[in-house]
Specification:
About 65% of the residues lie in helices and about 0% in strands. It has helices at about 5-60, 65-70. About 0% of the residues are buried.
Length: about 90
């Protein structure tokens, strides 16, 4: 075996390892895109469900009625800024 054969084998091994790594990243990236798309679809479905649930309430159904049909109230979003860690201001005498 001469030096060129050794170099060619080493290069082939490095190329194969690189291809495996690149394919792993491609697969992970594709899964990440699928996950982001699914999250967007879920958010849209949750918004539609909340809107339709409110329409049912406006049509004189109660939360209890809807629960008896197997419909849970939509999750409420918490809004606003998170509370700070500061204590409340002291009152002056």
């Amino acid at each position: 075996m001469d030096i060129n054969d050794i170099a060619a084998k080493a290069s082939a091994k490095i190329d194969a390892a690189r291809d495996v790594k690149v394919n792993a990243v491609k697969t992970a990236a594709a899964s990440g895109v699928e996950l982001a798309e699914a999250a967007q679809l879920l958010a849209a479905a949750e918004q539609k469900y909340a809107k339709d649930y409110q329409a049912a309430l406006r049509a004189d159904w109660t939360d209890s009625d809807l629960r008896s049909f197997g419909l849970d109230a939509p999750a409420k979003k918490t809004g606003g800024r998170p509370a700070t860690g500061r204590p409340p201001a002291k009152k002056l005498p």
